[in-house]
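2024-03-11 09:14:02 DEBUG pipeline.ingest accepted 1 chain
2024-03-11 09:14:02 DEBUG pipeline.ingest length=292
2024-03-11 09:14:03 DEBUG pipeline.predict start
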Amino acid sequence: MMARLDRGAVKLLTRTGLDWTQKYPGIAKAVAGLDARRAYLDGELCGVGSDGITSFNIVQLASDSGNAAALVFFLFDLLHLDGEDLRLRPLIERKERLGTLLANAAPSLHYSDHVIGHGPPFYNKACGMHVGGIVSKRIDAPYTPGNRGLWLKVKCLHREEFVVIGSTDPEGSRPYIGALLLGYYDPNGRLVYAGRVGSGINTAELERLWRRLQPLATSQMPLDRPPPRSTRFGSPLVLSRVHWVRPELVVEVKFLTWTGDNLLRQVVYGGLREDKPARDVRREVPHEKPGG
């Protein structure tokens, strides 16, 4: 998320340009309290659990309920400050200016610190703390949005976004939804079945997802080809109990691995990703671990 400060007025903008200022008034107020007339900051809004681990689901619940106590805006870059364009300055200089700006900021604004070098031990330490992974950046680089050649995300856990393409009927005492059916777009723009997720969704979230899915219901299967009815792992998929939806919602999940038939295994729901368009969801290619 980006934060734009202009003489006390604040806008919080997603990567796709959505204005989410009204969703997070506490964060906007904290940005307005910075010691600057004008600033443009780059960061990530996270929900932080009691264990210190971030969660997108906490962000969504805070948005829906108005409870923003667990939200922290982690800031890692500064593009403009009081009329000065910093985008062509080296990253390390931009971060120094950012750190100074945030020195007396509200607790909900957190400077995203860094370690120079020591990539492998830093990665191992991060994974030992059960966080999602690390991001490696070139300290001499200018600000270039979307340039993956200047930064690299290396994950500890398998965590990706998928498009919701349908749901199954609940069983037993479980209400609303059995599981969400997931997909992703291949390089040719075809929607490919990836598997399903039912774990990690509490009753309140099941109801919220069910309500979000109802307006998207369709009788037409959105996939390029039908999903397999059985796999080596998990129960068979009964297509007669599937409720298809238009592919508009995006969720993040954690999973153990991909199976040999290209389906997700041991999947746990993480939360809705309303900041990412469904058409942008592709299957990620794993990177090598950092070398330094």
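2024-03-11 09:14:41 DEBUG pipeline.report The longest helix spans residues 91-101.
2024-03-11 09:14:41 DEBUG pipeline.predict end
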